[in-house]
């Protein structure tokens, strides 16, 4: 009997709390994160700026973007001829700076890399720009010395994946 009475008291309280959150704007929404009228996106090969000398980095970022779009959104990546929208961009600059040195050798041990990009997400049906960013950057660190011994290629992989996640987040509906 006691359990039954408690359930009756909890149920109206939970309903009241849910109603208060829905009406009071507690930061949650049932709206989708991405525009519902978009189903497909083309992601052509991104460009490399004239000051970026790292080979194939634009291919690696494009690949990371395609994977992230298909993983984190409901969009399907298709060719431009079949796409409703298109995500284009360029890697404008890559900066590296030494954070720590190996005290034994004097060689860099930990590096910070920052990748700067410009991109545009355009609705091909209407010709309107949905999102446009310039000087958009993401940074990350990697360790070159033992025991990790990561080179630029390995160290940049984490930064490119992080950058792809941040770019795809920019494709979310603005609140």
What's the gist of this structure?
With 175 residues, the chain is an alpha/beta fold. It has helices at 2-24, 57-72, 152-169; strands at 40-42, 47-48, 76-77, 85-101, 108-123, 128-143.
Account of the protein in words:
There is one protein chain. This protein is α/β, with parallel strands linked by helices and 175 residues long. The protein has two domains: 1-30; 33-169, Lipoprotein like domain (Double Stranded RNA Binding Domain). 33% of the residues lie in helices and 32% in strands. The protein has three helices and six strands, in the order H-E-E-H-E-E-E-E-H. Strands 1, 2, 3, 4, 5 and 6 form a six-stranded mixed β-sheet that branches. Strand 4 (85-101) and strand 5 form a beta hairpin. Helix 2 packs across helix 3 (152-169). The longest helix has 23 residues, at 2-24. It starts with a helix and ends in a 6-residue tail after the last helix. 17% of the residues are buried. The model has no long low-confidence stretch (mean pLDDT 84).
How do the SSEs run, as a string of H and E? HEEHEEEEH
Mean pLDDT: 84
Tell me which CATH architecture of the largest domain applies here: 2-Layer Sandwich
Overall spatial form: elongated
How big is the Rg? 23 Å
Spatial gap, N to C terminus:
47 Å
CATH topology of the largest domain: Double Stranded RNA Binding Domain
- Helical region count? 3
Summarize the main sheet: 6 strands, mixed
Strand content: 25-35%
